[in-house]
Structure formats: structure tokens, C-alpha cells
Amino acid sequence: MSEGFKIEIVNPDKSFLSKENVSEVVVPAFEGEMGILKDHISIISFLKPGIIKVFTGSEEENFYVEDGIVEFKDNSLSILTSSVFNLKNSDKKHITNSIEEAEKELSKKEIDDQKKFLLNSKVEVLKSLNIN
Known about the structure:
This protein folds into 2 domains: 5-86, F0F1 ATP synthase delta/epsilon subunit, N-terminal (ATP Synthase, domain 1, Sandwich), CATH 2.60.15.10; 90-129, no CATH class. The chain is 24% helix and 45% strand. The chain contains 2 helices and 10 strands. Helix 1 packs antiparallel against helix 2.
């Protein structure tokens, strides 16, 4: 019997990550950070901009996600997103450009509250990365 569960992160281009025997995943759900362990109850939720943390044994991988849907059922976690990247391979210039674009969008007067919330979350998370 497996000690963990399966995770798959998919974006429009490809299957971004597929991994077996994961011990824990923390996702940035709209309700707040949500930790998922083996045998978690079935759940479907929306993601906000933030960091997905994937734990396998003593190994931890971190991914930035812009948005998406997370579904956990039968010890299988699926994350569908339009934008994801591995923080280990992150580019400071790309992150800086993303922050500048989000701040430019935030300065527009016609922006609605939901978009403002998402953009503020994006800026906050990206600034916290402190990539050197």
C-alpha cells in the first residue's frame, strides 16, 4: 500500500508535473492555504496567486501559480492552471516584469474588486519571493 498520493499539475501547454507517493501538498486556495494529506476528504476549490508546496519524503518543491482549480479525490490531486512555474528555475527579470505589469493594471480606475484582490495577491506573493 502506498504511503502517499498522486499529484498532477496541468497547464494549457502540457502536463507540468506528475508525481507519485507525495506526502503533502499545500495550495493557495481562496479560503486560505490548504494542506492536503493522504486520505483527505474529496474537495474542489479555486486557487489564487500563490505558492504550491509539494512534499515527497524530505524533499520540497515550490511552484508559483497564478490561478486555477484544485480537485482531490481518491488520493489523486489534480491542479489545472493557466500559469505555473518552478521557483527553483525562476528568473528574476520575469518576476520583476510580472510585478510591474500587475501594478500597472492596479493603477487603472475601471478595475473591479475581484481583479484588484487577485492582482494585489499576485504582487504580494511575487515580492515575497525575493529572488536574487
